[in-house]
Amino acid sequence: MSAHATHECVQLVPIFQELAADQLDTIESIVQHHHYLPGETLFNADDPLDTLMIVSGGQAKVYQLAANGREQLLYLLQTGDIDGEAALFENKRRTSYGEALVPTDVCSIRREDFQTLMQKYPSISINVLNVFGKRLTQLERQTTSTATESVEARLANYLTETAASLKVTAFKLPLKKKDLATFLGTTPETISRKLTRFEQVGLITQKPGKIIQINDADQLLLIE
Amino acid sequence: MSAHATHECVQLVPIFQELAADQLDTIESIVQHHHYLPGETLFNADDPLDTLMIVSGGQAKVYQLAANGREQLLYLLQTGDIDGEAALFENKRRTSYGEALVPTDVCSIRREDFQTLMQKYPSISINVLNVFGKRLTQLERQTTSTATESVEARLANYLTETAASLKVTAFKLPLKKKDLATFLGTTPETISRKLTRFEQVGLITQKPGKIIQINDADQLLLIE
DNA sequence: TTTGTTTCTTGATGCCGGTCAAGTTTTTAT
DNA sequence: ATAAAAACTTGACCGGCATCAAGAAACAAA
User: Fold this and answer.
1) CA–CA distance, B183 with B158 (Å, rounded to integer)
2) Least confident of A6-10, A208-212, B163-167, B174-178
3) Is A205's Cβ below 8 Å from some Cβ in B?
4) What is the domain-level CATH number for residue A154?
5) Is the model's pLDDT at A4 over the cut of 60?
6) What's the pLDDT score for residue A119?
7) Is A145 in CB contact (< 8 Å) with chain B?
8) Which residues contact A50 (CB under 8 A, 6 or more apart)?
9) 20 to 30 Å CA-CA from B74: which of A34, A47, B81, B158?
């Protein structure tokens, strides 16, 4: 599996899941591989949006900058996630910034190539529509949540959801407080305070290494 | 409204724009027409999401309810807009509420029919992807804006953008203050106050009938 | 280790904007 | 038209959370 290092990227990606091995080979042959160190930039706002990016390993954050310079984290890209679909069909520019949080591998496909692929394998468009749909639903919730709920409720919700999606009761925060803060639309200081408060009333326990242990998920979800 | 059942609905919709007249006829023959009075419900959260809705006239709001009961306006559907694409490809339920603001006409297409159409006319999927992309981009901006900018900045931005998109310098607010408030993530009272303040410093002029006249768009955009 | 740097925590302070309330204007209905 | 209801405005109050600042802890490099 060296020159044969084949579908490393593409087989990870849900949007290609219905395809056969030889079709994946075809795709793999047209992707470009990149590696990014922590802190390195994957893309900037205003960059021409001409490639679809596939994260084949690592972790990266996608964020926007508001007019006042404040940062808003929109997505946390994990292995198998894609980015750049948003305007693959228009000739727009990016509106967000992408930055590796850990050593990260990315495969990219040029727009024209991807469009050809979609014509050839219609299942891809359907899958892309699915990705869009999920992302829209997620963003709608995030918008509603940041606009209408208290920081405490948002944080409590984030903790219980993360634990639930990992099917665990204790987990390590996947982000620095600063990034978590921009994701939840607040500040690192407030996160610290709220976590301390949750611990004081027994809802969670904090352990060294950013480990959070959920003690009472039901109560956490009742916070408003 | 629909005296002669031509392609009244479907010809309005960007996603069908490449299709020929007889193809539009085919589509028109499978849509269902509905009419809603102001305040009537188009759909509720938890409704099965099995139809694509096309607004052929009027205006409707799409909003979510947060856990604490507060409302968040996500989209304002106008003639030609569609809704329900989000989960046309999964068997999910709705997460938002739809409500007519004025007398509103809607055509709907059942999911299976729409999927058949997409197979038959591939241009439709591409167009749907475009709609998704625009909506995602818009929501990303809205998320960033509500999470990071002041109410004053958001309102100022809304005013200048609305004026710009209408290519006018004075316009009638298309929403009641309450709805505008839930769109901007604030309250009717605060909107009133901020508008009064803008007027006091000469940035805008308010005229009877919810008419807003922009006097200094540049200054408005500098507010933070 | 030791040193420097980044991240995190905790305190003090202030303000934006939400809430409640009362009065006014506009819209709708009769 | 007048009456009733809904929408809007303005004031008073105050609480949540951002900001600024300083110290503690965690991490990285040499």
Assistant:
1) 10
2) A6-10
3) no
4) 1.10.10.10
5) no
6) 84
7) yes
8) A110, A111
9) A47
